[in-house]
Design goal:
The protein is mostly beta strands and 112 residues long. It has one domain. Helices cover 7% and strands 43% of the residues. Strands 2-3-6-5-4-1-7 form a seven-stranded mixed sheet, with helices on one face. The longest helix is centred in the middle third of the chain and has 8 residues.
Length: 112
């Protein structure tokens, strides 16, 4: 089973974690997250990014996607709000196989 971290698009006007850093629209560089997600990332070599659906202001709906996979590089920051740094992020661009209900920060599922 693979770890999926659930993130909002960097331009999503409703995104909660403004401190996440992206290389571009698809590849993650680092996330500010919960202690639980940081612990899950620390236990994995590679994670997949489930990028939530979003709608740009005045634009068209963009569906959810597995935007990339990335290697966990290191974890820094305060224990209550750790920062997970990634390297070697590669675009996946596959459809999401799982619909999320309610707030979900991460989940485990088969690799895309």
């Amino acid at each position: 089973m693979s770890l999926y971290i659930v993130l909002h698009h960097r331009r999503d006007p409703h995104g909660r974690w403004r401190a996440n850093l992206w290389h571009d629209d698809d590849r993650i560089a680092s996330i500010t997250t919960t202690p639980q997600v940081a612990s899950q990332c620390q236990a994995e070599t590679t994670v997949h990014v489930h990028r939530c659906a979003w709608k740009p202001r005045g634009g068209k709906y963009v569906g959810p996607i597995i935007s990339c996979s990335a290697v966990v590089d290191r974890i820094s920051g305060p224990p209550q709000q750790p920062i997970v740094h990634f390297r070697d992020a590669a675009v996946v661009g596959k459809a999401v196989k799982r619909r999320l209900f309610g707030p979900t920060n991460s989940y485990f599922a088969a690799a895309p």
